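ok trying this again, last paste got cut off
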Amino acid sequence: MSCENCPPGASLLVVLSGPSGVGKDAVLTRMKELKRPFYYVVTATTRPCRTGEREGVDYHFLSQEKFQQMIDTGQLLEWARVYGNYYGVPRDEIVQGLSRGMDMIIKVDVQGAATIKKILPQAVFIFLMPPTMEELESRLKQRHNEPSIDLALRLEEAKKEIESLPSFDYVLTSYHGKLDDVVSQINAIVTAEKCRVKPRNVIL
């Protein structure tokens, strides 16, 4: 994806983050449906596969032992324990995206985004914001798998994560039923980044 009037630049790494339940997965799913030309980085997790999710598409679903092995052998760009499960970004996924010369997009939690920014500060960091905390609570409840104590924990954590907003490059609001608006905004950000006088250059 590039600006027609600008010279082609190096591959971009777009980091999409935000609170749990804000709609990050829905945005990526919509981007894939619209066949947006990105390399979609698949992250790894030890949490159980949810209904409708697919191995190697939504996540690499790993055992605790396999995940620990990847930590020990340096195969993860970053990793963290979130709500009792482990999540991480395999280095090979970034390498594959770079080798294909494609713009990459990766979905991580706010903690993961902070770690990636230390390692790859030249990435583009986008924070996905809920319209209101009430809307976020409603979305979490619709999952039908959040015990009340977990729901309260996630909402409290979301308030803390929103405080990290100044460390991101862009903020987008995820309104109900307006996924295409978010996708269009991400496209616009990528186009603008491609036209920078001093382009970003992801080096791993």
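PB: full thing came through this time. The first helix runs from residue 24 to 33.
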